[in-house]
Design brief:
The protein contains 8 helices and 20 strands. With 371 residues, the chain is an alpha/beta fold. It has a 7-stranded mixed β-sheet.
């Protein structure tokens, strides 16, 4: 298995990068594929001069310093960086070792690099006129850490986070920290009343949204507040945070691979406990009260989280279920682990928007109920 996973590149080649065939690589030429930030072509091996070695190291570093990528040796390009021919190049184990050695010596920190020969079945040991010699993918760093905070602190309107957010939609403020951007939906820099995020240049980030409906535990006694966490609000908050942070990490910070995610409800204390609630039918609570912040973690493909679709729904289901189980309830009712929407568990305020979103991004909708 190679270190780099890239949905875009796998789509171009038509296979995982460690399973690319001679015929699939040949389509780079037949489809006149263009070089990009994650794809580079060279017609022949790098030479043995010091300049050629520096050129190899520079090309590797350029890819590693963006989102990782693939360098194809044996593909010629025109003056518009389009693949136009595949000169025949001999496949040589010694040349593969030389590539690794040059990268190891001249690129620091050394990126993860795989050198993969793609054999021409008609001429074993050689690249044909329509295939490259090597496909060498790598990624710059290990997987990124990302966290989602669905925060029940204070009272706020029900979040409408299913749609894309722009901070300008509401009065808000932004500030710059050390290699990061901090933004929140409030005109008061000391108090966040709706949304907040902290986005780091490295791709790490945090996202918070209010999902609390705080009420007195005893009628007329404001000293006995309890946070009512709506199960639908929780699902929407987690999904929105995952997508928002993944798009920052992938599209702005050029991260790739897996994302390690942590979701929590905060603050939850003995003074202000929380309970899981639902607003469908006659409403009511689900499970029992909790007095400590619940935590759910998971690792997911960054591309899956950044794009609307079933994998994003499945990741949301996994994290939401992890949080809900702290309340003694078995699973999230709104979504399933295989990325399906259970539309019967969305009340009217959300239901129409959820259904429209699911249909637009080809997410399966089911009418099933949980017995």
């Amino acid at each position: 298995m190679v270190a780099l996973r890239s949905r875009r590149l796998e789509g171009i080649f038509g296979a995982r990068l460690d399973a690319v065939s001679h015929a699939q690589v040949a389509t780079l030429v037949t489809n006149t594929v263009t070089e990009s930030h994650d794809l580079d072509f060279k017609a022949e091996f790098y030479g043995r001069s010091d300049k050629s070695k520096r050129d190899l190291a520079g090309d590797v570093a350029a890819l590693a310093n963006t989102s990782g990528g693939v360098l194809v040796l044996g593909i010629a390009e025109d003056n518009q960086a389009r693949a136009t021919a595949a000169p025949e190049v001999a496949l040589d184990n010694a040349e593969q070792d030389r590539i690794r050695q040059i990268v190891s010596e001249l690129v620091h920190p050394t990126p993860v690099i795989d050198v993969i020969p793609v054999d021409n079945p008609q001429r074993p040991g050689h690249g044909s006129s329509s295939s490259p010699c090597h496909v060498a993918p790598w990624r710059r760093t290990p997987s990124r850490s990302t966290k989602v905070c669905a925060t029940p602190a204070g009272t706020a309107p029900r979040p409408r986070t299913w749609r894309n957010h722009r901070w300008q939609r509401r009065t808000g403020s932004t500030s710059v920290g050390s290699r990061c951007l901090v933004a929140h939906g409030s005109s008061n820099a000391a108090v966040t009343t709706y949304l907040a995020c902290e986005l780091h240049q490295s791709g790490v980030g945090g996202f918070a949204t209010y999902i609390d409906h705080r009420r007195p535990l005893q009628m007329g006694d404001p000293s006995t507040l309890i946070s009512r966490i709506g199960d639908e609000d929780l699902a929407v908050g987690v999904l929105s945070g995952l997508r928002f942070l993944a798009r920052h990490a992938r599209d702005r910070a050029a991260s790739g691979g897996n994302a390690v995610v942590r979701a929590t409800l905060w603050p939850v204390t003995e003074e202000t406990p929380a309970i899981l609630a639902q607003n469908r039918a006659h409403g009511g609570s689900l499970g029992h009260q909790i007095v400590k912040p619940p935590v759910a973690t998971g690792a997911f493909d960054l591309d899956d989280l950044a794009e609307d679709g079933s994998p994003l729904v499945a990741a949301t289901s996994a994290l939401t279920t992890g949080l809900i189980q702290h309340f003694g309830y078995p699973e999230s009712l709104q979504m399933t682990s295989d990325g399906t929407i259970r539309i019967r568990y969305w009340e009217q305020g959300y239901g129409q928007r959820v259904q429209a979103w699911a249909e637009a991004c080809s997410v399966q909708i089911t009418q099933e109920t949980v017995g």
